[in-house]
Amino acid sequence: MEYRLDRNVHSLLDPRTKLLLLFTSSVFVVGNAGERWMVVFYWILVYLPVLLLLVEKEWVAAGIAGAIYVGCYFAQMALQHDLTALESALALMLYIITKILPTVILARYIVRTTKVSEFLAAMKRMHVTDKLTIPISVIFRFFPTVAEESRAINDAMRMRGIEMGAKKATEAVEYRMVPLIASCSIIGEELSAAAMTRGLDVGKKRSCIWNIRFRLLDWIVMTLCAACFIWWGIGRFYV
Amino acid sequence: MDNNRLNAKDLINVGIYTAICAVLCCAVAMTGVIPIMMVLLVVFVPIITGIPYMMFLTKVKKFGMILILNILMGLLMWVTGMSYYALIVGTIAGLAAELIFRAGKYNSKWHGIIAYAVSGLYCWANYFGIFFNADAYFSTRQNFGQDYIDAVTKMLPTWMCPVLFVVDLVCGIIGGWIGAKVLKKHFTKAGIV
User: Fold this and answer.
1) Shortest CA distance to B13 belongs to which of A121, A142, A41, A164?
2) In Å, how far is A145's CA from the nearest CA of chain B?
3) Whole-structure pTM value
4) Would the CB atoms of B12 and A92 count as touching at under 8 Å?
5) B52 touches A: beta carbon within 8 Å
6) What is the ipTM of this complex?
């Protein structure tokens, strides 16, 4: 996974708005709160990440996501009747895809368009302690790294003939886990050195080159999120 | 500088090991779509995450790191669609684990193993939804099919709750012990620890 370091315009949404959107999406799309009552907002939340990808000019990703959505929709239409075992397994897979994919796209969008310093500054603005924000930003930086390392290690182990699901299962796990942890811990050392250079440890207030404030688009998205929760509250307590 | 305060290096370590544990948890938890694996997750997750966790404990020398890791794991569980019980139980368990590990002066092996077993309780907390609020829990999983729901409900009557608690602790101890062994075999020899 690559990061766009050469951008000098920042993304359209404020980091805080992005997090609110992620939270809303995880409550209403993955968590499926409200069910039928929320169906309009549900579809808005499902298609919003694709729209965001288009806005950020990620044509390929947006195209793939849209194609998967449409494909899943028609497949689910076709699977409405009584199901055989194979079909119900397929329906389960489709269900997981349609539930999780929008949030995954959103999370990927957030990771790719938010700079770490932007995120830290926005969190500082919300008075979140950096004892939480620094680990969180490291986690987001680290997910792609862990995936990449484990892919490389997996390849190396396959070359040595140590396959997952072979008769020595413990060996297969151990030989993957140990190099993964070793290389991650070394990358971590380098990361701490880099953080030290950037003065993360000084304890003074850090300045940020990005001008972080809410713009029109932020207010629109935040109104949408608030509307989701209010509509859900109405459905829950008054109807 | 005050030596007992967490500095950037500690916080980055917390982040790294949380990421590793979360990726492993996620990879193992994917198998939960099979009903029997759903129950056995409480066995596999503590055993698999034992190795990175014990490695993490070798870096812990100050109060607060285990607690932060547990809060973050709870948050991740919550965001990825498990219940918020994991966050609550994880926070309390993290505090308990922190105190246990501190009692061992941050370098005792057995204190570390027990601290790992205790802090792994967030895994057990993920089942609370099934025990205490089954209708709501399965309403978000209707499409898994009635067979799946029946199978999981049959395997998890309410009296299984304390059983899973014990299983989680025991598997945590086993996982921590395996972790400590692997650590000794590979990392102590190589001088990474």
Assistant:
1) A142
2) 10
3) 0.77
4) no
5) yes
6) 0.77
